[in-house]
Amino acid sequence: MSTSSEQHLVALVGNPNAGKTTLFNALTGENQKVGNYSGVTVSRKSGSFRSPHGKKIEVVDLPGCYSLSPQSPDEEVTRNVLIGDQQDEATPDITVCVVDASALERHLLLAMEVIELGKPVVVALNMVDLAESRGIHLDPTLLSEELGVPVVPIQANKKKGVIELKQALRLPFPATGAPKWNTSGDTESRQKARTEFAQVICGEAARREDDGTLTITDKLDQILLHPILGWVALIGVMLTVFWTIFSWSSYPMDAIEGAFGSLGDWVGATLPEGDFNELMVDGVIGGIAGTLVFLPQIVLLFFFIALLEASGYMARAAFLMDRVMNLVGLSGKAFLPLLSAHACAIPGVMAARTIDSAKERLITILIAPWMSCSARLPVYFLLIAMLLPQANSIQQALFLLAVYALGVVTALIAARILKGRIAEDDTPSHFMLELPPYRLPQVGYLLRHVWDRAWAFVKRAGSIILALCIILWALQTYPKPAEGTPAAEDSALALEESYMGQIGHVVEPVFKPLGYDWRTATSVITSFAAREVFVSSLMVTYSISEDDDEADSLLQDRLAAATWPDGRKVYTPLTLLSLLVFFIYALQCLPTSAVVARETNSWKWAVAQLGGMSLFAYLAALAVFQIGTLLGFT
Known about the structure:
Helix content is 59%, strand content 8%. It is of the alpha/beta class.
């Protein structure tokens, strides 16, 4: 059935790394929309294009899979859509199977399963340039004759063959011939028949000239997958990423601070003096500045993750990490969701859908927030700068790498513990990973990916920070001290008597064992809505305007000078370490908890995760401060 008399539905299906999404982008351009399939949390990406004959065609990009025998929620959705069993989803009129021409024998197995459904199919033979560079001689005509469906050679990343593919999707859709391979018997015998047939036709339609010459990918893998050199390379890549974040981001950060400083000065001079002036300058402009000033580091992090993924190195890192993951009861499949969580826990949690084992999927979701996400970076940068005031960017990068490593190691230990306490499931975990050839990433893809992630961060975090900054401004401004009282002449005393000061003194006894005074405790409480708010909250409590050109250094100076009533410094190295540990472990992101509840279909797990991580963060920070104090550290 089609979606309407005027519009027809095309489904894209293929193995991961076959270039399916690249083809989707080439077909649809900007006419794309993303949502969720009804009744499940799997994302639905669709778009539209016009055929050469003017017909409007909707195309849906189905989740990547290796088989129509589903082992994960993503694969189940792909199968259900193709057979017309997905809730509120029309059955595709025709399916385009995207296969990697350089690994044709393996990719044909899924295409053959789709052909067996008996519905119209077109095979998009992608990456023909890569196959030919490897000495593979392709015969699309012979391949089409043997499979009984049209086969169109394409190069999706350069939009070659896309017009020919659109022409193949003409009406009436091409009929699918009867399969030439055995389709009877049980699952195992049918899979064996497909494998044998794929080997035979690839021997004729994809003949390889094997002269023994190693490809560039083979040569690189000899180093990057080496048991020792591979780990050296992985650590070097991670260190380079962190060093770059510290060193390159300073210039745009200074520019953003200067721009908002000038804007704040102009607004402050334009508006009449009073509460509204202060609200706009300190609350609104300061709140926006507090979000955007850290955007360069976050953009760089998103960029490097996209670069590693697009170049093909990410899959190698997952392969290396499989050995480590096995030690804690997980597989290399858990690596990609956990690495994604370093950008943001939400996509990391959602990426766990690709894990076939329900138990492993749940464990991955539960430990993902301990991967230090980009929202923690503003806090880390502030605390590390105060802990290492004289350090260079390399030393700071090493310290940041150690902070990230602490979260990762603790998460893996937690996974090992959870592995023995969560009931086994019926689906064994299979680690099957496509190692794509190394490629030069497409600049357009990288820019679009970084823009989408950065804009999503600004929308999500920016709105929260702006709202909370306005609330914090109101809490620290009211009630105003009466004229003639000491508080009217002393801004610090006025702050202490404000609503914020009152709240801070109430929660101070809870956080004082961790080394936090009432101002720090207030900022920690507000950061549970979003971690990024911590720095903005400190600026408000220490009466610093975020649009000030020197806001960051001024905040560090005031924190360094802050004292307890008896004259002791508040922000000692122990206190800073305690704060670092707390932010490594605390789940201060309510949107993440909502996504966890949705992905696990249970608020029980989400609440248990939020409570358990918060308690662990408190106890870990308490241990750091109290043990350090007993040992005589300051």
